[in-house]
Amino acid sequence: MQNIKGKVVAITGASSGMGKAIAIGLAKNGAKVVLGARRTEQLQQIVEEIKSTGGEATSAKIDVKNKADLVRFVNTAVEQYGALDVIVNNAGVSQLSRIDELDIDDWEEMIDINLKGVLYGMAAAIPIFKQQQSGHIVNIISTSGIKIVPMQGVYAGTKNAIRTIAEAFRQESEGNIRITGVSPGFVKTDFANNIKNEEMKTTIQKGMEQIAINPLAIANAVIYALSQPNNVEIGDIVIRPSKQN
Ligand SMILES: NC(=O)c1ccc[n+]([C@@H]2O[C@H](COP(=O)([O-])OP(=O)(O)OC[C@H]3O[C@@H](n4cnc5c(N)ncnc54)[C@H](OP(=O)(O)O)[C@@H]3O)[C@@H](O)[C@H]2O)c1
């Protein structure tokens, strides 16, 4: 794929689901990928899988709640491969509840991971991108922030905060650093397994079983965005199952 070969791409939340698919998809197209997440065993397995098919990959244990982890993460890319061309801020969690349930701990978890975690990723990458005078930020957002429904207010809020921040950054960056938002709808991953509200968990899992699309669709969107020439910035991509209402 044009413009992907040799690119150094760091991906957060690469131990499963979309992050894993993005890492494998990019590596197949010749990118050097750096996988970050908390579950090191899964990361190691994916790295081995990529290497066994001739790809280049490494991993780092990171918790996106810790800003120092993100700095270490991007430095791993630079130390190992000599540059950082792209950061994919993909790590995310969701807890779904009514606002008046006041699930404040879960709100904070989502804000820490989905919002602050992405900002930490951007903050770690931007100095390197500035020095190189080039770079690309890809944020995995959600259709939850587009069609806003009950029970998903705070989750959608964290995702839409990223959309808002990205638009300001796009204008500020004057073209040297590109920024892309990818908003998936239902995608078949383990994402719903961590939802504590049993009723919501079952609803989401049912939706997943019935209509969710393969994470490959999201990987392909990231590949599309990264394969553009330097003067082309893909802004927002929304990918839903055709049947998602
Ligand atoms: N699946 C969907 O239907 C859907 C729809 C719209 C948007 N999304 C978004 O897509 C992204 C990926 O989700 P997924 O569906 O692929 O689910 P997933 O399989 O559960 O993947 C989530 C990833 O985030 C990582 N992660 C979570 N907390 C982390 C932390 N504190 N530090 C570092 N990594 C952390 C997890 O790794 P560890 O547990 O190993 O740390 C895992 O690799 C998320 O941002 C999610 O909001 C998902």
Automatic annotation (TrEMBL):
Top-level taxon of origin: Bacteria
Gene3D superfamilies: NAD(P)-binding Rossmann-like Domain
Name of the molecule in the record: NADP-dependent 3-hydroxy acid dehydrogenase YdfG
A Gene Ontology molecular function term of the record: oxidoreductase activity, acting on the CH-OH group of donors, NAD or NADP as acceptor
InterPro entries: NAD(P)-bd_dom_sf, Sc_DH/Rdtase_CS, SDR_fam
Pfam family, one: adh_short
Protein family (similarity comment): Belongs to the short-chain dehydrogenases/reductases (SDR) family.
Upper classification of the organism: Bacteria, Pseudomonadati, Bacteroidota, Sphingobacteriia, Sphingobacteriales
PROSITE patterns in the cross-refs: ADH_SHORT
Keywords noted in UniProt: Oxidoreductase
Stretches of the chain forming a coiled coil according to its record: none
